[in-house]
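Thread title: Can someone regenerate the structure for this chain?

I was given the following input by a collaborator and told the matching structure tokens would be attached. They weren't. Posting the sequence so someone can regenerate them.
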Amino acid sequence: MRGACELIILGYTRFGENRLVVHTLSREFGRRSFLTRVGKGAGMALFLPLNVVEATVADNPKSTLGNASGFSSRYPLNGIRNNLYKNTITLFMSEVLFRTVKEGATEEGLYDWCLRSILTLDSLEENFANFPVRFLVELCGALGFRPSFEDVAPFIEEEAAAMRRMLDAGFAEAMLLPLTGAGRNALADSLIRYLEFHTESALHVHSLKVLRETLG
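Best answer:
Regenerated them for you:
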């Protein structure tokens, strides 16, 4: 296999002095990691969380890692990259995806939903503080277990009424729900517990703390 592929960057791991293992999501391969070489002073901005790039990818017969080269940006995402709060949200989103979608997993429609979510966040000019909570709700649906209030109720420790409103709201309404920082945090915690139950794994989303400190 060799050819051009559109990829969403979930993160990367340094491998020696001039190579990266790039963790990605794509239509063709689902969640997959690729090994790529980077030169000194290389444009690492290409590998920021949730960047959408195009690269030439190929199988590696000696490894489960594919090879990737020739990375280029597909969307500038200026609305995200010029905003501290949105950058923090993408850090959270990419970590949740990285920890929830296992290497090698393919979920039909997941890539296209992720791409729409990224472009939607990029386009929002205001009222996006609730976006991370809505992202978690929609991620559950994209993975095949969109929660009803009855489904998620066992995982709620507080803010039950706010959770019901969030689950029942359309996207635009969800962005305008009057939530405090503490309320958003409680909803995010509940939904992460719900995700942990359905994925049968402890997610340990470290960027949630950064998100709390940034958005309140």
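Residues 181-199 form the longest helix (19 residues).
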